[in-house]
C-alpha cells in the first residue's frame, strides 16, 4: 500500500513537472517570438516572425532575428528567409525645415557611425512591405562594438508604428526645432504647396523659380488671411503652411508631448534647435553623445563647419552650399527679398504660447520671440530675425 502510494505520488509529481516544463517552454517561446502577418505592410500570404537578439558587444542597439515565410521572401520568390539586423540607435524624427538634413550629416560624423542607404529610410512609406524595410537595416554581423546606426525619418507616426511592431527598441528620437517664423518662411520658399499653387504641384515637389511665385508680400497675405478667417487642420506638422497661424499654438510642444512624451519617451527624446546646430555643432554633438552615452573622441567637423546642407536653392539631402555663400532668410525664388517685419511681428504673436511651452522642455530653449528680455544678451546673425538665447539653453 505504502509502496503503491509512493509510486503514485512520484508519478503525479513527474507528470506535474512535465506539464509545468512544457507550459514554461511554451510561455518562453511566446514571449520570445512574435508574428506579424495581418498588419498593413505585410504581403498577403506572407508571415514575419521576430525575436529580439542581444548583440554580443554593442550596447547601443536592439537587434532582431527576422524570419520571412511565404510569398516573396527570397528575391520576390516564395520560401523562407532569415536575417539578423539591428534597429537604429538614433532616429531623427522631426521636424521639416528645421535642420534635419544637417543633423543627419552631423551624426554621420560620429566615430563608428553607420548610415542608411538614404536619409529618409522610413518604414511603411511608398507602399514598401515591412520585409523590404527590415532588409534595409544593417546586419548584426556588420555592427561592431563601437558602431552607431543612425536614421532620419520625419514621419513620426510611422516611427511609432514600427516601434510597437518590433516591441519597443532602445532607440533615441531626435527632434529638430527652429524659430517658427523662420521655419514658415523657409517652408514657403522651399516647397510647392497646393494651398497657394493650385494643382500645379503636389506635396513631394519643390518650389521652382519661373514656375511658382513667391514674395514677402504674398506670404504676409497668406498668414494674415489664415489668422483672421480660417480653421486648423488635422496634421499641421506635415503641412505647416496650410494654416500657419492657427497651427502655431502648439506646433513644437504638442508634437513632442503628443507623439513622444505620451509614450513615456521623455528620457529617449533629444531636442535640438537648428540655430544651436548652426552656431555650435560641436556642442550639439557632445550633448547628444552624452545623452546616449557614446564616445565621440576624435570627431572631425572640419568639413561640416564649411557647408550647409539641403538649404536655399541647393535642395536635397546630398546638396551642399559653402557657408560663405549662405544667405539666411534670402531665397532666389522670392528674389532674395527678406521677410517683412510686419509678418514676423504677426507670427510671433501666433506662436507665442508654443514658444513659452518650448522653453519649458529640455534643454529649455529661449527664443526672443517670446523672451524679449534676453534681446540685449543675444547675438543676431541676421538683422530683424528672432534670436535663440544660446547662453541660456543649459539652464531651466
Automatic annotation (TrEMBL):
- Gene Ontology molecular function: sulfotransferase activity
Q: Does the keyword Acetylation apply?
A: no
Which Pfam families has this protein been placed in?
Sulfotransfer_1
Is this entry keyworded Signal?
yes
Q: Which UniProt keywords apply?
A: Signal
Report the residue ranges that make up the Sulfotransferase domain in this protein. Answer: 89-317
Signal peptide interval: 1-23
- What is this protein identified as? Sulfotransferase domain-containing protein
- The species is Spumella elongata
Q: Lineage from the top down?
A: Eukaryota, Sar, Stramenopiles, Ochrophyta, Chrysophyceae
Amino acid at each position: 500500500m505504502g509502496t503503491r502510494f509512493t509510486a503514485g505520488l512520484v508519478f503525479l509529481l513527474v507528470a506535474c513537472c512535465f506539464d509545468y516544463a512544457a507550459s514554461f517552454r511554451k510561455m518562453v517561446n511566446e514571449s520570445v517570438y512574435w508574428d506579424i502577418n495581418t498588419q498593413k505592410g505585410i504581403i498577403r500570404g506572407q508571415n514575419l516572425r521576430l525575436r529580439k537578439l542581444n548583440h554580443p558587444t554593442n550596447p547601443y542597439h536592439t537587434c532582431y532575428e527576422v524570419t520571412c515565410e511565404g510569398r516573396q521572401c527570397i528575391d520576390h520568390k516564395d520560401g523562407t528567409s532569415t536575417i539578423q539586423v539591428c534597429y537604429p540607435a538614433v532616429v531623427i524624427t522631426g521636424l521639416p525645415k528645421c535642420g534635419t538634413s544637417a543633423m543627419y550629416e552631423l551624426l554621420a560624423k560620429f566615430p563608428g557611425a553607420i548610415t542608411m542607404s538614404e536619409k529618409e529610410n522610413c518604414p511603411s512609406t511608398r507602399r514598401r512591405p515591412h520585409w523590404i524595410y527590415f532588409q534595409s537595416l544593417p546586419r548584426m554581423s556588420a555592427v561592431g562594438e563601437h558602431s552607431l546606426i543612425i536614421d532620419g525619418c520625419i514621419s513620426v507616426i510611422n516611427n511609432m508604428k514600427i516601434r510597437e511592431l518590433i516591441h519597443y527598441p532602445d532607440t533615441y528620437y531626435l527632434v529638430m526645432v527652429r524659430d517658427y517664423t523662420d521655419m514658415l518662411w523657409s517652408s514657403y520658399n522651399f516647397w510647392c504647396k497646393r494651398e497657394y499653387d493650385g494643382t500645379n504641384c503636389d506635396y513631394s515637389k519643390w518650389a521652382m523659380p519661373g514656375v511658382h511665385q513667391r514674395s514677402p508680400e504674398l506670404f504676409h497675405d497668406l498668414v494674415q488671411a489664415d489668422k483672421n478667417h480660417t480653421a486648423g487642420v488635422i496634421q499641421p506638422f506635415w503641412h505647416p503652411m496650410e494654416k500657419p497661424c492657427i497651427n502655431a499654438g502648439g506646433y513644437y510642444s504638442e508634437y513632442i508631448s503628443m507623439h513622444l512624451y505620451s509614450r513615456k519617451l521623455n528620457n529617449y527624446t533629444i531636442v535640438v534647435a537648428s540655430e544651436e546646430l548652426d552656431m555650435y555643432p560641436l556642442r550639439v554633438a557632445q550633448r547628444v553623445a552624452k545623452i546616449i552615452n557614446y564616445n565621440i573622441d576624435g570627431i572631425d567637423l572640419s568639413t561640416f563647419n564649411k557647408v550647409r546642407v539641403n538649404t536655399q536653392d541647393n535642395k536635397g539631402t546630398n546638396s551642399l552650399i559653402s557657408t560663405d555663400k549662405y544667405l539666411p532668410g534670402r531665397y532666389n525664388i522670392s528674389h532674395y527679398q527678406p521677410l517683412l517685419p510686419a509678418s514676423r511681428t504677426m507670427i510671433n504673436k501666433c506662436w507665442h504660447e508654443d514658444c513659452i511651452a518650448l522653453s519649458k522642455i529640455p534643454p529649455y530653449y529661449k527664443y526672443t520671440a517670446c523672451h524679449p528680455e534676453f534681446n540685449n544678451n543675444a547675438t543676431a546673425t541676421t538683422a530683424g530675425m528672432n534670436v535663440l538665447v544660446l547662453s541660456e539653453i543649459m539652464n531651466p
